[in-house]
Specification:
Shape: elongated
Pfam family, one: DUF4270
Organism: Chryseobacterium luquanense
Strand content: 35-45%
Structural class: mainly beta
Number of domains: 2
Protein name: DUF4270 domain-containing protein
Number of helices: 8
Radius of gyration: 28 Å
Oligomer: single chain
Length: 538
C-alpha cells in the first residue's frame, strides 16, 4: 500500500490540535520514522508479515496478596481493587472470585463499658459502580429510626454495579470467619490459596437486581443526620452471637491486648458468592467497613443509668493481610481445545483472560526477520512503523460482553540474559518514546470483529537494522488484558505493577494459522499479522 505520508501527518496534526482522534481508520506511522517523510524525502509502503502467536498458560493462578490488590504505589483507595462474583460461559468456562481479609482492632485492650451487649454487626462492601447512572431515588417521609424510635426521613439512591458477565443474574454474598492463620501483610499469596473457614455462615445478602444503594436518614425534628452512607454499598448483617462471644466478652483478656494475639484469635473474614454463574464485579478493599453497634450501661451524675448505642469500627485497611481466591472449571470449554501453547507455529485462536487466566505470546519468525533484513540491506528500506495487529474472533467471541479498550492491555518484552536467565522489561518503544507513547490503539470496539494495533517499531528495528546479528531466538512479547498502574506522581510504577490480579476481562482473538507454512498468499481471515511501514528514498 502506497501512502501519501505527508498528507497523513498534516491531517493527524490538525486532529490532535482539535482534540479528536478517530480510531476507526488505518493507523498512522509512529513518530520514530516521521522525520523520514519530511519534504517528500521518501515513499512509504506497508506490508504484512507472519507472526507466531500462541497461548501462555498461567495455571489459572496469579499473585493476589496485598501488594497486588491494594494500590500501595499511588496511595489511592479507589485504584485498589478486588473481585467478587462468578461467571460461566462456553469459551473460558467458569470463574469464581472470593476475597479474604484479616481484621484488626481500632485500639487494643478496648473498654466496651459495663454490661455491653451487641445490637448488630454490619460488613460494608463497596463495589465499583456507575456513578453517572442513577437508577432511582426513593424517599420515605414516615420512616422510624429503630434506635430510639425516632421520626425520620429515609432517602435511598440506587446505582448499577459495574459488572462483567450476565448482568441480570442475581448473586448471593456470604461471609465466613476464617479458621486458618493468614500469616502477615508481607507474605506472598497466590490466587489458588484457599484459607479454610468455620462452617456456620456469619451473614449473607442477596444482590437481586445488580444494584447498590446509598442511604441517608435525617431526624424530622431538626433535620440532623441519624445515618449517612458516604458512598453506595452492600451492607451484610453478621452474627451478633459470634461478636458478643469473641469480642465483647473478651474485654480485658489477652486475645484483645495486641495485634499478634488478636489476628490469631479472630483470624479474618472471607467474602464469597454461592453462585457458579452470574457476573464478576470489583470492590474497593481499602474502603470496606466492619462496624459493631452495641449498648452498655452509662451512669450520669445523678445516678441515672441509660443504655446509649455505641459504634465500634474495626480496622480493615492496608495493614492487614488481604488476598483474592479464584476458582476455575474449564471442563467442556472451548479454551481446552484451542489453547495449545504452540510456540513453533502458533495457535489458531488466542484466549486472553485476567485474574490468572491465559496470556498471549507473540514471536517474530525467522522467515519474517530475514525478509525484512533483505529489504533493509538490499533496498535500503528503513522501518518507519511496525505494529502487531490482532483481531477479536468473529465467530467465537460474538456476544454482548464489552470488548477491551486501548488502555486494557499491557505488553512487555521477554528474553533471556547472557546467563540464560529469563528477563522481563517494557518494550523498547516504551523506553524510547516515554510518557507520550501510546502502545496500543483500539479500532471498531463497537463492532464485530474489533482489532488492535500494538506498536513494536523500535523492538523490530533493533533486530532488523542492527549492524550485528541480534539473538532474538528467546525474545517474545507477552500481552495481557490488564493495565499498567501509576505511581504517586502519575508515571508508570514499573512493568510488574499491573491490574492483572483483579482484571475480569477476557476475549478470544484470531491467532496464527499453523497450516500457513509461511505462505502469505493463503491467509486465515483476520489472522494476527505484523504490519510494517517502511520507507525508501525517491
Amino acid at each position: 500500500m502506497i501512502y501519501n505520508i505527508r498528507k497523513i501527518f498534516t491531517i493527524l496534526s490538525v486532529m490532535v490540535l482539535g482534540g479528536a482522534l478517530v480510531y476507526n481508520c488505518e493507523p498512522e506511522p509512529d513518530s520514530l520514522g516521521e522525520q523520514l517523510f519530511l519534504d517528500g524525502a521518501a515513499n512509504g509502503n506497508e506490508s504484512s508479515y507472519d507472526l507466531i502467536a500462541y497461548n501462555i498458560k498461567n495455571n489459572d493462578s496469579i499473585r493476589t496478596d496485598a501488594f497486588k490488590l491494594l494500590d500501595l504505589i499511588s496511595s489511592s483507595s479507589t485504584s485498589s481493587r478486588a473481585v467478587l462474583g462468578a461467571f460461566n460461559e462456553s469459551q473460558f468456562g467458569m470463574q469464581r472470585a472470593s476475597y479474604f481479609t484479616q481484621v484488626r482492632l481500632a485500639t487494643y485492650n478496648p473498654d466496651f463499658g459495663t454490661n455491653a451487649i451487641v445490637d448488630s454487626v454490619v460488613l460494608v462492601v463497596k463495589p465499583v459502580y456507575r456513578a453517572d447512572s442513577l437508577k432511582a431515588t426513593t424517599t420515605d417521609e414516615n420512616y422510624i429510626y429503630p434506635d430510639g424510635n425516632i421520626d425520620a426521613k429515609k432517602v435511598v439512591s440506587t446505582y448499577p454495579i459495574t459488572k462483567y458477565g450476565k448482568a441480570k443474574k442475581s448473586l448471593t454474598l456470604e461471609v465466613h470467619e476464617v479458621s486458618d492463620f493468614m500469616n502477615g501483610f508481607n507474605d506472598i499469596v497466590y490466587s489458588n490459596k484457599k484459607f479454610e473457614t468455620y462452617t456456620p455462615v456469619l451473614g449473607s445478602k442477596e444482590i437481586t437486581d445488580g444494584n447498590v444503594s446509598s442511604v441517608t436518614i435525617t431526624k424530622d425534628s431538626d433535620n440532623s443526620a441519624l445515618f449517612t452512607s458516604a458512598s453506595p454499598a452492600v451492607r451484610i448483617k453478621l452474627s451478633n452471637t459470634v461478636f458478643q462471644s469473641k469480642i465483647i466478652n473478651k474485654k480485658g483478656q489477652p486475645e484483645l491486648n495486641d495485634v499478634s494475639n488478636f489476628i490469631r484469635h479472630f483470624r479474618g473474614l472471607k467474602v464469597s458468592v454461592t453462585n457458579s454463574d452470574g457476573y464478576l464485579f470489583q470492590i474497593y478493599p481499602n474502603d470496606m467497613e466492619l462496624i459493631m453497634y452495641y449498648k452498655n450501661d452509662l451512669v450520669d451524675a445523678n445516678g441515672v443509668t441509660t443504655r446509649p448505642q455505641t459504634k465500634y469500627a474495626f480496622d480493615l485497611k492496608a495493614s492487614n493481610m488481604h488476598s483474592g481466591y479464584y476458582e476455575y472449571d474449564r471442563a467442556g470449554a472451548a479454551i481446552q481445545t484451542y489453547a495449545n501453547g504452540n510456540t513453533t507455529t502458533g495457535d489458531l485462536k488466542l484466549y486472553a483472560q485476567g485474574m490468572g487466566g491465559n496470556s498471549i505470546g507473540v514471536k517474530f519468525p525467522v522467515a519474517t526477520i530475514n525478509k525484512l533484513k533483505e529489504l533493509y540491506q538490499t533496498n535500503k528500506a528503513a522501518i518507519i512503523s511496525a505494529k502487531i495487529r490482532i483481531y477479536t474472533d468473529k465467530s467465537q467471541w460474538s456476544n454482548a460482553y464489552p470488548k477491551p479498550s486501548s488502555s486494557d492491555f499491557t505488553i512487555v518484552q521477554r528474553d533471556k540474559d547472557a546467563e540464560g536467565k529469563p528477563t522481563t522489561a517494557y518494550t523498547t518503544d516504551y523506553t524510547s518514546l516515554g510518557a507520550a507513547f501510546i502502545p496500543v490503539r483500539a479500532y471498531d470496539v463497537d463492532k464485530n470483529p474489533a482489532y488492535y494495533d500494538f506498536t513494536v517499531t523500535q523492538s523490530l528495528k533493533d533486530i532488523v537494522e542492527s549492524t550485528t546479528n541480534v539473538d532474538y531466538s528467546n525474545r517474545y512479547f507477552k500481552i495481557d488484558l490488564s493495565q499498567f498502574l501509576p505511581n504517586s506522581s502519575g508515571a508508570l510504577a514499573g512493568y510488574a505493577y499491573t491490574s492483572r490480579s483483579f482484571s475480569p476481562l477476557r476475549t478470544v482473538f484470531v491467532g496464527s494459522d499453523p497450516t500457513n507454512a509461511d505462505d502469505d498468499t493463503t491467509v486465515t481471515p483476520n489472522e494476527i499479522k505484523l504490519r510494517v511501514t517502511y520507507g525508501t528514498k525517491k
